[in-house]
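Researcher: I've got a protein sequence and the SMILES for shikimate-3-phosphate. Could you write out the 3D structure of the bound complex as structure tokens? I'd like something to compare against our soaking experiments later this week.
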Amino acid sequence: MSSAAIKISAETKKLSGTIHLTGSKSESNRALIMQAMSKGAVTVTNVSEAADTVTLLGILQPSLPTEASAKEGKVTTESEPRDQSSDLASRISHPIDIGPAGTAMRFLTAYYTLQDGEVTLTGSARMKQRPIGILVDALRELGAEIDYTENDGYPPIRIKGPLKQKSERVSIKGDISSQYISSLLLAAPLLEKGLYLDIEGELTSKPYVEMTLAMLSQAGIRYTWDANTIHIPNQPYANCEISVEPDWSAASYWYAIAALADEAELFLPGLNGYSLQGDSKITEIMANFGITSQFKDGGVFLKKEPKTVERKIFDFKECPDLAQTVVVVCAALGHDATFTGLETLKIKETDRVNALQVELAKIGVKLIEKNMTYKLDCSERDLSKSITVNTYDDHRMAMAFAPLALVLNEMQIEDHRVVEKSYPHFWKDLESIGYNIEVLNSK
Ligand SMILES: O=C(O)C1=C[C@@H](OP(=O)(O)O)[C@@H](O)[C@H](O)C1
Ligand SMILES: C=C(OP(=O)(O)O)C(=O)O
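Model: Sure. Here is the predicted complex with shikimate-3-phosphate in place.
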């Protein structure tokens, strides 16, 4: 990834425009795994242009021109089933590198336990620090052969399939990452004995598990979820076409921009009020900041109305990817809110809590931890300086801080291409509503 920095400033604080967001990364990555699991019975439209999705598509369908098919927004299925055994054989000596894509890493882990052959899955330096032991342990209990080629509990992992199912029941910790659970659920219909999955302890990021089950339902998969147990019997994936909704996590940055503008009227086509994405909760969160959301004409209209922010506590357990967006907005407005549900942020693209603390200090704002809750202290907030924001290989650091350009005279953002992970056109879209973006250097 390039390490070029950009200088960004806002020409006006009165914003209006239409922003066409790319498809949801989470929905796309599930749909692509379902397409592969179902050998093409499931097809996908409006697939995301996120680099994480393009990478996954490239791995699952090597014979398709991946970027072109992602851009067209439709992934077609090959008419002839591909001979996967030769692909798998060639991968024994060539590890599959999923870069920084967390969901792709986790979803492919269960997927490859069902395939014939041996593969090694690896990723970026950060991916090798993101835990996968909980998922590997569960799959081993079911009968999978998986080992670690570097450090126990972390990628790279070597998977030898196909799994000979030993057990129909497995329990899994719910409070580290919901992606382990989604990975098992996507594979469950193809397990000979089906799967009883017992979720131990609290379930974090629950809407993502609900999204997985809702998408499985679209492909005709029957399941039950009683108390802490999800049961999926063995059954085939049915033919279906999944249409991916635009990405609500990407939409959150437009809500943040609206919240920091003097006036804002923005239209985001394709989004509706009944999303599978838990991050659609941004509408409710941002209502506290005076941003109204009106669903009409096939999309959502955001409008800024004058409002004093009163809400003091924001919880992100169900929508962790919104945390940075909302914390930065509160800091910019000098609103000393308290944040909960940030536990899983430390194992994402970077330690997001630490990254927020270091970068917010540049505008004199502190984010202070006390008994697992985090409180903003804006008493020494200073918006008069020009700052340079580091992004820590984290797309959401770049996009969550970009709205600050509306309240600072000038700012720089390091390594701006990091946004490609989920939202490749983010900077172009900002320019379209009146931001000035200047690329400074390319090391
Ligand atoms: O399943 C998914 O698509 C995701 C689940 C969440 O991760 P955790 O379950 O690890 O919180 C979220 O942060 C990530 O961006 C996408
Ligand atoms: C955490 C994220 O993604 P992943 O876990 O898929 O890398 C994210 O997009 O914020």
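Model: Residues 5 and 179 are 32 Å apart (CA to CA). Confidence is low (pLDDT under 50) at residues 63-73, 76-86.
Researcher: Great, I'll pass this along to the crystallography team.
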